[in-house]
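Page 42, continued from yesterday. The earlier attempt failed because a stray header line got pasted into the input along with the sequence. Redoing it now with the clean sequence only.
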Amino acid sequence: MTYTVKTGCFETGTQEQQAIFTQIFGAENTQSKFDFYFHWYNIAHEYGHCLCNSYQSEIVGVRQEFLVNRFAVSLWRYAGYKRELERLQNMLCELLGNIENPVPAGMSYEAYFAQLWGTDRMMEVPVYGYFQFTSVLNALETQTELPDVLKEMGIHTEIVPAAFPYKEYQFSAGTAGEVLDDLRRLLDSLGIAQPETSVELTDNPAVQCMCVNGTDNAEN
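This time it went through. Structure tokens are written below.
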């Protein structure tokens, strides 16, 4: 079974699509923030979905979103990207201050989005943005270690100190495939069996998901 991480590009979106993300990321350095989030951090997030599917994880829906965010954060921390994660945390705190909280008063964040999961409302970019940004921020604050997250995903391996060289990325749609390849090499160095996975760039910036090739299954 093979997988594709589909990631949309801000620069090829329609004016309406770009306006939505400008509202979320702010008018200043919109594309830079978009590329940093979706073509660096979120590549690890979507690859987490690929691994969950490949290892037949029983954790699905909202709980899998929480899991793959812990995976992405712990993997980038393990790889030595502390500075980038600090930048991500500061950015998300700022962005969440500009996005309306859709959770009704008296209802928990997790319960609300579990109820919303699979509906059209969930796929509205501001709503889904609030959900994901909050989940990522929680993962950053929790700081779960990589071995613990891998076990949750059904992957059992001995973790040794990272020996993979740190690399500074020029965050853009063009580096998304490079990011995935580097993450795969890092996990390969830990002896983790991985499915064949590639990155596909799309014109619609709202498309950020993984697909099981040959099926209609997708995870955001």
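Notes: The two ends are 19 Å apart (CA to CA).
Reminder to self: strip header lines before submitting.
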